Amino acid sequence: MADLPAFHALQSRPDVTRFLYWDDRTLEQSAEMLGRVVGMTGITDDSDALRLAVLLAGDDAVIGDFSLWRTSREHAQAEIGFILHPDHQCRGYATEAARELLRIGFTEAGFHRIVGRCDARNTPSATLMERLGMRREAHLVENEFVKGEWTDEFVYAILDREWVPKR
Is pLDDT above 60 for 62? Predict the structure, then answer.
């Protein structure tokens, strides 16, 4: 809970939540959400989610919130999600953190397929998934009604045999 101010700094920004399912959160809403995610510490027999805070090297400032969650045990599938503070975008931090989640997903959790989804207007998220080697599998047209409007969604995926770790 010591990370609440940094977590709230992400969750309360309209430019961060613009393409997400929720609006910018109050401090109380951020605290409630943080309380739910702090226990997401790994993909195991008893847990289906991993949530990681991205820390800036040197000063340990929390600059991102990245997640990996199992969507199917039977089919060994998961989904990846990410939020990076706008002040720290375009520096490779999101790519580094997301690659680590893919590594964990494929080498430690044993997933066969990992999916990522984003609002089709969210060019930085789509670009990140492409940079990770994920392929766009779908462009769903007006498939969700979010924040009072119909929105398109991109679906990206990568298979375990396609994933190439980078150093």
Answer: yes
Round to whole Å and give the CA distance between 167 and 46.
31
Who wins on pLDDT, 58 or 163?
163
Rounded-to-integer distance, Cα 90 and Cα 124, Å? 9
| Ramachandran class of 53: left when φ > 0, alpha when ψ lies in -120 to 50, beta otherwise | beta
| Strand 77-84 with 113-119, pairing | parallel
Domains in the chain, ordered, with CATH? Answer: 4-159 (3.40.630.30)
Residues across the chain? 167
| 102-106 CB contacts, 8 Å cutoff, 24+ apart | 102/132, 102/158, 102/163, 103/165, 104/43, 104/50, 104/68, 105/43, 105/68, 105/78, 105/80, 106/160, 106/163
Question: Hey, what are 109's tokens?
Answer: 């959790």
